[in-house]
Amino acid sequence: MKRIALVLSLALFSVLASVPHPPAVCVGGSTSVHSGTTGSLNLSDDKEFQFDYADDTFRLLYERITAIELDSKPGAMAHLASGMSWVPKFGKKQSKWLTIRYKGENDTAETVVFEIRKEEFESIASILEKRTGKQVSYDHEDMNAQLVRTASPEPALVPVTFTSTPRGAMVLLFGQTAGRTPLTTKLGPGTYTVQMTSSGLPPWTREIEVEPGKPLTISADLGHVQPNTVVITQVP
After folding, report:
1. pLDDT of residue 140
2. Beta pairing partners, 138
3. Is 7 contained in some domain?
């Protein structure tokens, strides 16, 4: 039994230890923490947000948080809290202002503002969003960076095989020669205009739709004066 308890304790310690504790400076706000207090943001507890400093801790229940904002420049609330003479401790290029809005004891609108490095905040952003149920609001500069980070990856190329009757027809894609049938190439999802030509026969032109993850076989019959047969086979 003691062994099981020890294992569980070690597992819990491992989980808590894995949560980053980024350094931050309390710029101010409607809290008792003095402006300029250096400490670290602690998200180890799943019920309350903590700012550890010196021998004390500022605690805030996640359920009371109403908004989270990360700005490149201190906004009006940050200016009000810290004063216009505040000098960033991490440097102007590195410093970001993290503004957390929350409900006070009497449901009054309260605010606490921290100075933090952007890369340090990124290590806890998803945890903070999950614990609070609120999405971080970024300014334009950081929003653009966020969109780049979260942009979905390019769709995988799809194998497309071209065959013809008679064989050896020239395949043109984008108006450029791709090769002669039978031909297999890879295309990104989308709509394409395909042309196949063979000496002495009318050209064959069709639009094809390439879908993500669905290989295609395109067969063209060039043996008629007015070719009107196209067979599109999706390979499972």
Report:
1. 54
2. 70
3. no
d(CA 103, CA 224): 77
- Is residue 13 domain-resident? no
Give SS3 for 9: helix
- Rounded to whole angstroms, how far apart are CA atoms 165 and 220? 6
State whether 145 and 84 are in the same domain. Answer: yes
- Tokens 């004066």 identify what position? 225
Instruction: Looking at the structure, tell me whether residues 138 and 72 fall in a common domain.
Output: yes
Q: Are 146 and 67 in contact (CB under 8 A)?
A: no
pTM of this structure: 0.52
Q: Could you report the per-residue pLDDT of 28-86, keeping only the tens digit for each?
A: 777 788 888 899 999 888 899 999 998 899 999 999 999 999 887 655 444 444 444 56
Beta strand pairing status for 170-173 and 176-180? Answer: antiparallel
Tokens of 91: 């440097």
Phi and psi at 172, nearest 5°, equal: -120, 130
The residue range of the domain holding 58 is: 19-150
